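Sharing a chain and its predicted structure for anyone who wants a worked example. Both blocks are below, sequence first, tokens second.
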Amino acid sequence: MDLAAKASLLTEKIQELGSVLVAYSGGTDSAYLAYAAYRALGGKMLAVIADSPSLPRAELEAALTFTTEQGIPTHILRTSEMENPDYVRNDSQRCFHCKDELFTVMEKARAELGFEHLAYGMNADDKGDFRPGQKAAALHHASAPLAAAGLTKQEIRTLARSAGLRVWDKPASACLSSRIEYGRPVTAENLMQVERAEAALHELGFPQVRVRHHGELARVEIARADLPRVLDLAVLDRMTAAVRAAGFLYVTLDTQGYRAGSMNAVLPVAEILGASAKEIKASADSRMHTGGMEQTITVLETAVDDMTPEVLAYVAERGRALGALDVMLAPVIMKKGRPGTLITVLCNEPEAAALQDLLLRETSTLGVRVRQEKRVCLERAHVRVSTAYGEIRVKVGTCNGETLNAAPEFEDCRAAALKHRVPVKQVMQAALAAYAQANVAEV
């Protein structure tokens, strides 16, 4: 589908909503969505900005300036995620709790103002990223018109540029909380430190920076194109003085430069267990149970006898997209000898509500059984191996430092097999052989 067709489809998707509140942050994606929604619906849309200590004042001002220029109706809502201990704790699900608060407040405003739907700016590229906020959006049934139209980040920038929107090339700007290392509580003080430090670096002429908060240490990421300038000692001294003035004792320059989501590098294990890396390290010994890590998971279960295989497959696919650890379908014999299908969903507690809603809405069931169960798992991590078909991730299961299982990631193998036109099993065998030779580097 060409870009013009995708733009037309976006308009159709927005018009299907009838009236909508758009979650608006001022970034390119949400700005273009607000612009497109205003063009498609006029007064039947409202751009909503969530204001809290995690939003830099400069970003709020810029976001309001854009909607004023475009005549887009805009409303500021105060959110209270800082009052939620689960958010302040700052584990791998922080973004979920933030977006859950956002969409809860927006849902209340939607009902009070008489709008039909909520929408947010997820694009087609976001689907493969680590973004717990998408689970919150699904929980509140927020639509993602940009993703539904198949628009990628670059395509959205192209459309915004064609429309003459000055935000078309705006650098990505995640909330200030994303700068704070996992496991360090989010406080108004450390958010202010980050905001002041980044503002000072902007004034020094660095448009794309991140100041990562590691307590007394600030780890500064600057766009790679600007790194040669930073290596001038005079510039480095000014940068150090500016960041220390924001309240940091030590300043270090990240030689890899700016990259989105660098804080997530510690998450392969943390994400699976639903805890921060520090929490895992501190509690690993106490949670070890005869050969693995003990977890508590939620099990959702229902049996149906009047659904086609195609619909069942769709439900399983949607369940995994909503964050299910697994969705299993098994044939069963129900009362009166009726053949049916048992649907079992395994998930972590934050995803349970959305998955329960999926089963009630998308299947013919009249009820869903919900229970908590303990399971024992190997500690898991990923490593990358080099093969003749490119780098392949290998999932490794360990216990007490001993590797018990290793399996190549199928999607990596599938992509490599299609690219090189070889059987997928050939790529999988190559990945395992490379892993066996121990020529690996941790993700």
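Comments welcome. The chain has a mean pLDDT of 87.
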